[in-house]
Amino acid sequence: MKRVLVALALFIGFANSAHATLVNQTYAFKAYNFSADGNPLDTPPADPVVGSLTVTFDNDIDYAPQSNGITLNYINIDVSSTILFSYSVEFDTLMVGASHNGLFGYQWGDDDFTMFIYDATGKVPNDYVGFFGYTQHTRFNSFETSALEVTSRPAGAVPEPASWAMMVGGFCLIGGAMRGRKRASAVSFG
Questions:
Q1: What angle do CA 125, 128, 134 make, to 5 degrees?
Q2: In a domain? residue 66
Q3: By the 8 A CB rule, do 20 and 58 touch?
Q4: Residue-wise pLDDT tens for the chain (190 aa)?
Q5: Nearest alpha carbon to residue 68 among 57, 81, 52
Q6: How far apart are CA 74 and CA 123, in angstroms?
Q7: Are the C-beta atoms of 67 and 99 separated by less than 8 Å?
Q8: How many structural domains comprise the chain?
Q9: Could you tell me if 96 and 124 lie in one domain?
Q10: Of 94, 98, 96, 115, nearest to 107 (Cα)?
């Protein structure tokens, strides 16, 4: 029994050292007061642009643009490309947008957007909320703004490996304790 307890203690110790800070956030956004890049007389097809997305990432790691871990819940403009996200630990900035050859961006004539959310997890406070830019296939201009409102809320708990290890270890200890309590019942008639 002592060997089991020692092995379990070592396992929990190693599991705690593999600490991950997973962020599973839903960001609701509203971008407004767009200006047209190229033709100031052109009006944007949608103003405001509203939407929501859910992202899961470790806020202790820089992420290159990737499509794993992001879901675009809704947006009120047409989007034709795969949605990517990246994250910068140094600036606590989440970048979300359409994919062009594996990088962020939008091109004239495409239905795409790019958004930067500063202070995405509250680690690096910033005076600015972010930036939003988009294009639509019916226009030659791109439309950009820094008038962006973002609210975030946890999308759901993502258990850390250490939590799972402690839970399993607790069940093992309880099971071991229950198994070891076999007592002989002696009946004496006296």
A1: 130
A2: yes
A3: yes
A4: 555 555 555 555 555 444 457 888 899 999 988 887 666 666 777 889 999 999 999 989 999 888 899 999 999 988 888 888 999 999 889 999 877 655 555 555 577 888 888 888 877 676 678 888 887 666 656 788 888 888 887 766 555 667 777 778 888 878 777 776 666 566 667 6
A5: 57
A6: 27
A7: yes
A8: 2
A9: yes
A10: 98
Q: Are residues 82 and 170 in the same domain?
A: no
Residue 184 lies in a domain: no
Judge if 111 and 166 occupy the same domain: no
Q: Which domain holds residue 10?
A: 2-16+160-179
DSSP state of 82: P
Q: Any idea which residue has 């799972």 for tokens?
A: 164
Look up tokens 């630990």; give the residue.
89
The pTM (predicted TM-score) of the whole model is: 0.66
| Distance from C-alpha of 104 to C-alpha of 148, rounded to nearest angstrom | 19
Token pair of 92, please?
């606590």
Are residues 123 and 40 part of one domain?
yes
Query: Tokens 């004239």, residue?
Result: 108
| Residue carrying the six token digits 């819940």 | 73
